[in-house]
Amino acid sequence: MKLKFNGFLVLLLVLVAQLTFAQERAVTGTVSDNTGMPLPGVGVLVKGTKTGTQTDFDGKFSIKASSSQVLVFSYIGMKTQEVAASSTSLNIKLKDDSVELEGVVVTALGIKKDEKKLGYAVSKVTSDEITKSGEQNVLQALAGKAAGVQIIGSGGTPGASSKIIIRGANTITGSTDPLIVVDGIPIDNSTTQTAAGDNPFNANLSGINNSNRALDINPNDIESVTILKGPAAAALYGARAGNGVIIYTTKKGKNGKGLGIDFSTSLSIDKVSQLPARQGKYVQGDYNLTGVPTYAVNTPQSWGPSAASLGMKTFDQPGNFFQEGITNTNNISFYGGDEKATFRASYGNVTQTGMIPETGLKRNTIRLAGDLKLSEKWKAGASMQYTHTTNTLAQNGSNTSGVMLSLMRSPINYDLRNYKDEFGNNTNYFASYDNPYFTVNENPATSDVNRALGNIFLTYSHAEWLSLTAKAGIDTYSDARKQIYAVSSNGDGLGGIGEVAFNSITNKDYYGDFIATGLLPLKSEWLKINYTAGLNLRSTQYLDIFSRGKGLSVRGLYNLGNTTELYASNYEENTISRAIFAQLDFDIKDQVFLAGTIRKEWSSTYGDNVQSAIFPSGTASWILSNTFGWQNFVKVNYGYGEVGIAPAPYRTVSIFGQPSMTDGYTDGLTFPYDGVNGMALGGRLGNPDLKPERVLGHDLGLSTKFFDNRLSIDLSLYYKTSKDLLIDVPLAQSSGYSSQYKNAAELVNKGIELEVGYDIFKKSNPFQWNINANWAKNENEVTDISGGLSEISIESAFASIGYYAVKGQPLGSFYGTKWQRDANGQKIIGANGIPLLDGETGNLGNSAPKWTGGIRNTFSYKRVTLSALLDIRYGGEVYNGTLARLNSIGISEASADREKTYIVEGVKADGTPNTTPITAQQYYRQVVGDGGGAAEEAVETVNWVRLRDATISYDFNVKQFPFFSAAQLSLTGRNLWLNTNYKGVDPETSLTGAGSRINGLDYFNNPGSKSFIMSLRVSF
C-alpha cells in the first residue's frame, strides 16, 4: 500500500511539473526610449523570481515566462515599467525618470505634481514634438500642438518673431505675451523695435521685424514644455502671469554607466510658401486721355498695353528674386553621472541663409547643467547658458525700402536685377521706391546678441515635513543693431543723402526665491497636507541707446564721423518687485484634492497709494474612479484664480520730454530746433493710484481614460474677466494734459478646449497608431470702457483702417471705411456706377479665429515611425492691404481681366438694381482697390488647413557597431501643404510682429516658408 501511494505521489508531481513547464514559453520583444530609440542593457526580470536577462545592442530581449507572470523592465535613468507577459511579442517604451514620469508635470515655481491631482488644465508638449516641428524658435515650435494656444508668425525670414496668445487676449494696451520660465527661472521674451526718440509714428509698421528673445533658446536642449493656461494654474506668479505661463524644462544629466554622447545634424531647404498671384500680360503704363493703354516709365502703374503687342520681354520678378534658404543645424551633448552627481554639457550651432537674399541667422549656444548631492540632506545644482545670435534682417513692406513693396508692385517688363547705375545709385522702375535688390545689398539691418542665462539652487532636506531651497537666476543680454540707408536710398525719407543708425539695447533681469516645502506630520491615513511658502525678489535694468547720422560725406563709409547731422536719444528703465507666497495641498483618501495659493506682491510700478496687490487661487479635483472603484479613470476639477499684468513703468508720475509736432505724413518738427533745445511736461498726467490689471478666471474640467488608458479625453471650460485694464483716458486740454493712464476698462474671455488621445492598437501589437487631437474656441468681448468712451485705439495702424477696442465688441476689431448699404445690406451705387462710401467708419471684423484645432497621427512599425500634424484655423479676419494695392495699380492676377466693363452688384439711390458699367481700371482701383475703395473690401475671412509638420524616421540596427547605442535618420517636411482661401502670403502672418498689439495686418508682408529637412541623430 505504501509503495502504491508513493508511486501515485511521484506521478502526481511529474504531472504538475509538466503542466507548469508547459505554461512557460519564450517572450520576445524590443525596448526603446520615449523617442523610439532602442535601449541596450535594459534589465528584464520575471517578477517574484530570479529569472532575468538584458536587452542586446538592438534593444531586443528573449525570456521564458508564463502568461500569468509579469515582466519588470528597469534601466538607470528611466522609469521602471511592469508589463504582463500575456503576449509572446512585446514592444516596450521606457520614459525618462524625470519630468517625463507618467502623469508628472512641472507647475508654478518649478514644483512637480501628479497631473491627475491638479484642479486646473495644463497642456504638455514633449521634446520629440519640438524637434519634429523643424522650427528654430521654441515658441513657433508650439504651433498647433495645444488647445487654446494661438501662434502668430511674422514671416519666413530668419529670426522672424513669433507671437503667442493663450485663451484670447487679456489686456488692451499691454503685451499679450505669456511669462516664459526656463528651469524655474522667468526669462525675458520681449520683442523690441528700434525707434528714435524723435520718431512720431508707430515703429512697428515700418523698419524691420525684430526677433523675440525666446529665439535664443536651443530647441534641442528642451526636455518638455508645460503650458499653464488659466489664472488658477498661474496665480503663484502674480502680476507676471496675466497671459499664462509657458514652462520649459531642459535636459539634465543621467545616472548611468560611463559617458553618454548624443549628436545630431540636420539640413533644411526653405522655399516660399505662398505669394499673391500677379498678372503676367500687361506692362508698365496707364490709360491716356482717350482711354487707350499707353506704355510709360517711372510709374508704379501696370495699366499699360500687353507685352506681346509691344514685343517686350517679361520677367518673373518673384521667381528671380527669392532663393532657396538653407539651414544647417548641429548639436552635441555629453552627459553622465552617478548617485551623487549628474552633469550635461551641450553645444548647438545654427547657420541659416534666408529665402530673401542676403538675410540670415547664426546662433551658437553652449549650455552646462549639473546636480550634486553634498550629503543626505544637502543638494546643490546649477545651469549656465551662453548664446551668441547674429541676424541680418529684411525691411518690412510698409516702407519705401521694403523688399516686398517694390518687388510685388514691379511691372513685368522691368528687370529688377539691374539695381544700380555706374555711380552705385539706386535704379528702379519707380524712383520713389528702393529696388529690392538694392535694399538687401545696400541697406542691411543687422543684430548682434550676446546672452547669458544662469541659475543656481541649494536645497536642505531636514525631514519629510521640511525642505528649504534657495534659488537665484540671472538673465542678461546685449543687442547691438545697425541700420544702413545707402546714398540714393528712399528708405529714410531724406531724399537719398544716406544714413547710418546704431541701436544698443542692454537688459539685465535678476530673480531669486527662498522656498520652504513639506508634508505636515498629521499621522492620518486619510488626509495628507503639503505646504509651500516662500519669498521672491526680482529686479530689471533696461537701457536703450539710439544714435543716428544723416548725410554721408563719403559713399559706403558708415560711421557717425562721416555724417553731417547727428542725433542721439536714450531710454532707461529700472523696476523692482518683491513678494511673499504660500500654497496648501490637501489629499483626502487619494480621491479628493484641494489646493489654495496666495501671493502678495509689491512693485515699483504700482502707484504710491496702492503699493501692493494680492493674487489668490483655489482648486479642487475629485477622482471619481478612485471613490467608486471604476476601472476607467474619471476626474472632475474646478479652479478659480487671480493673476495680473503690472502697469508700465514711470506712469505714476508726470515726466518731461522733448515736444514734437507732425502733420501725420512727415516726421514733423522736434527739438533741438535751429540749435535750441526744449523740454516740457509730457501730455500724460501721472497717476499715483495705479494698480495692476487683474485677470479673474474660472476653470472647469473633465478628464477621462478608457480601454486600459488607450483613450484619454480632457475637456475644459473657462471664463475669465479682465478688470482694471490700463488705458489712456482723455483729459480736458485746459488741465495742461491730454490724457491720464488709468485702470479704466474691462473685458471677458470665455471658451472651451478639448484634447483627445487614442492608441488604436494595444501596446503589444507590433504596428502602432496613435491619434492626438485638440480643438479650442474662444469668445472675447470688451464689456466696459470708463471715462465716457465707447472705443479706444489699441495701436496706431493705417489711415484707412485701425485696430480698436470697442465696447460690446471683440477686442482687436478692425475699424475702417465702409460702403453705404440699404436696409437689405446691398451696396448703394452712385450715378457713375461706383459704390458710395459711408460717412463713418465701422467694424470690419476681428482678427481672432473662430476656432482652432490640431490633429497628429503617429504610426510606427518595427523601426519605422511616421508622424504628421494637421493644423486647422477657422475664421478670423486679415486686412489684405497688399491685394488692395495690387488691384489698384493693375498688377494683381484678377486685374488682367480688363478687356471688359464691370457692373457692381447693388442698388441705385432709388432702390432699383444697378446697371451702370464702369471700366476695369475703375473697378480694380476704386471698388476692390485702395484708390478710393472702402477698406472693407480688403478684409478677408481666413480659413486654413495646413500640414504643419510630417516626419518619417528609421531607427538603425546598431548591433554590429558596438560603439553606437542608437542611430536614427529622419526626413521632415514643415508647412509642405497649405489649403487656404486667403489670396495673399501665408496667412500665418503679422506685419507688426510680436512686439505689437496688432494682429492680422498684411501690407506687403514678407512671405512664409515651407521646409524640407533631413536629420541624423546618433548616440554613443
UniProtKB/TrEMBL annotation:
State where the protein is found: Cell outer membrane
The positions making up the signal sequence are: 1-22
Q: Where are the transmembrane segments?
A: none
TonB-dependent receptor-like beta-barrel domain segment(s): 413-976
Q: Name the UniProt key words of this record, in alphabetical order.
A: Cell outer membrane, Membrane, Signal, TonB box, Transmembrane, Transmembrane beta strand, Transport
In terms of Gene3D superfamilies, this protein maps to: Carboxypeptidase-like, regulatory domain, TonB-dependent receptor, beta-barrel domain, TonB-dependent receptor, plug domain
Protein name according to UniProt? SusC/RagA family TonB-linked outer membrane protein
